[in-house]
Design brief:
The structure is a homodimer. By secondary structure, chain A is mostly helical. Chain A folds into 2 domains: 91 residues, Arc Repressor Mutant, subunit A; 35 residues. Chain A is built from 6 helices and 3 strands, in the order H-E-H-H-E-E-H-H-H. The interface between A and B is large, with 47 and 46 residues. The first copy, chain A, binds a DNA duplex through helix 1 and helix 3.
Chain lengths: 134, 134
DNA sequence: GCCGAATAAGTACAAATGTACGCGAAAGAC
DNA sequence: GTCTTTCGCGTACATTTGTACTTATTCGGC
């Protein structure tokens, strides 16, 4: 798996929009982005170009318009971004971050239920054999 | 609470070192940083100066050496950094990040136990009144 | 076949970031 | 009291990021 450069704030916003709308023209991505924050059309254009340069997007010219599509999958990008953050902020230990998120950012009831289940599953997975997570 | 500019990658590394060693000279901070990654002494100096400029550190001249000390407390900085990340990466919804962290980064058994407890507490807190988290 | 709207693509440019040099002052060695 | 080492501090500078204008091109309507 190629290790593409990580994304900056603005790039991330555009990338997210692109992931959500799927292959799309600049205009469509722009519209998506603007639902969250104001950003000039040309700025979106620039970000898309940069995303492509960094290998996070592909594009092809369809007649007169350029169609961009995501290349890295969200999961991958998110993973490396998060990993970077965890390393940087907590020296690689993710528990404090999880604690922080749960405590400070409010997760609703169904979210809590889901987490409870997830935790049970993991405990069940490791307890019998006593295996540690890799 | 003043809203200080957020920290960049490098600044964060130095800030963490500063928090850990407590009030210290550039040299001491540098030594701490270098335990994790190589970074030139003067670079650390620069980061410390920038941290002070951004209001995250204080310093005083003690004779000939400058003693830096953390100003913002780690919790505060971490909170805003994490919040920013969650907004950018998940549009403000922290659950996916939590899920990701728990699933992908391996939390050990005692960590899981702690989380389970935390979740129970929160569920107990909100269930009776049906109150949603702010 | 000309006009305006839309678009791609090049370019611009200030701010932030990463990384560091060099000078002058101070402190200790001798 | 000079020499050397150690610092602080100002400065530097390339790269990345944030944000956008401009120019040339094309398409659809008249």
């Amino acid at each position: 798996m190629v290790d593409r450069p990580s994304l900056s704030k603005g790039e991330m916003a555009v990338a997210r929009a692109l992931w959500e709308v799927g292959p799309a023209t600049v205009r469509q991505v722009h519209e998506k982005v603007e639902r969250n924050e104001p950003m000039s059309f040309v700025t979106v254009q620039t970000y898309l170009r940069r995303l492509e340069a960094k290998g996070h997007a592909n594009s092809r010219l369809d007649g007169r318009v350029r169609i961009y599509s995501g290349r890295s999958r969200p999961g991958t990008v998110i993973r490396s971004t998060v990993n970077e953050l965890v390393d940087r902020l907590f020296g690689g230990d993710s528990l404090p971050l999880v604690r922080h998120l749960i405590e400070e950012r409010g997760i609703d009831e169904s979210g809590l239920a889901e987490l409870r289940e997830l935790i049970s599953r993991l405990e069940a997975e490791m307890a019998p054999s006593g295996r540690k997570p890799s």
